């Protein structure tokens, strides 16, 4: 496995992040995953049989010291970095005019500052490999929803992806925004249950991420919006 490509996935202990890590490991990548829940990361590694190519790194995606340490640890352990996947994020599932502001700061920092910090911490390493930045956004970052502050954070991620691309493309780094529609993941745990209608699986979104990562050198796929058939918005 020495010399194989290396990816760092934030929020990689469950949901889409875990599915991406599984797909990449199956494809021969070495993968570092981060998350704030050390027990969850440990459980994820145990579930996969603690493969040699998996590195778990506890940390907060919205704390630059933690993010920089995750990048440095990955480079020290694996010797290179080819891809970063900014996946960590969550929703408070309330509305801006009558919701509970107590959770908003953490949501905005995780969803918006977190990807920016990962870009900053990894850019120099990605220059060396002419690698790729993948930002996991949302359909909510393209379609306004009444009162949806979470959606506003994902609009920010949509803008961050293109703003970043315009800077790093001259360094040979690709940038891809993956914007899922409704997906069956722990994202809905605090919502009170899954929304009605058909949902995508985390594995289906992971397939899109891996497809973007696997594009030939010189090809930069920038925006991929993935909805389940039947989701109108």
Give the SSE layout.
Blueprint: E1 6-9, H1 15-26, E2 30-35, H2 38-47, E3 54-58, H3 64-78, E4 83-86, H4 104-129, E5 132-136, H5 149-168, E6 174-180, E7 183-184, E8 200-201, H6 202-213, E9 223-226
Parallel strand pairs: 1-2, 1-4, 2-3, 4-5, 5-6, 6-9, 7-8
Helix pairs in contact: 1-6, 3-4, 4-5
Quick overview of this protein structure:
By secondary structure, the chain is α/β, with parallel strands linked by helices. The chain is 41% helix and 17% strand.
List keywords for this structure.
alpha/beta; Rossmann fold; two-stranded parallel ribbon; 17% strand
Please give the radius of gyration in angstroms: 17 Å
CATH topology tier name: Rossmann fold
Tell me the helix content: 40-55%
Overall average pLDDT: 93
Category by helix and strand content: alpha/beta
- What low-confidence regions span 5 or more consecutive residues with pLDDT below 50? none
At CATH level 2, the architecture is 3-Layer(aba) Sandwich
CATH uppermost class = Alpha Beta
CATH superfamily: NAD(P)-binding Rossmann-like Domain
Strand order of the largest sheet: 3-2-1-4-5-6-9
Strand content: 15-25%
Query: So what's the oligomer here?
Result: single chain
SSE arrangement, N to C: EHEHEHEHEHEEEHE
Work out the number of β strands: 9
Anisotropy-based shape = globular
The main pleated sheet reads as:
7 strands, parallel
Give a verbal description of the structure.
The protein is α/β, with parallel strands linked by helices and 233 residues long. The protein has one domain (6-226): Rossmann fold (3-Layer(aba) Sandwich), CATH 3.40.50. 41% of the residues lie in helices and 17% in strands. It has helices at residues 15-26, 38-47, 64-78, 104-129, 149-168, 202-213, and strands spanning 6-9, 30-35, 54-58, 83-86, 132-136, 174-180, 183-184, 200-201, 223-226. The strands form 2 sheets. It has a 7-stranded parallel β-sheet with strand order 3-2-1-4-5-6-9, with helices on both faces. Strand 1, helix 1 and strand 2 (30-35) form a beta-alpha-beta unit. Helix 1 packs across helix 6, helix 3 runs parallel beside helix 4 and helix 4 (104-129) packs parallel to helix 5 (149-168). The longest helix has 26 residues, at 104-129. The mean pLDDT is 93.
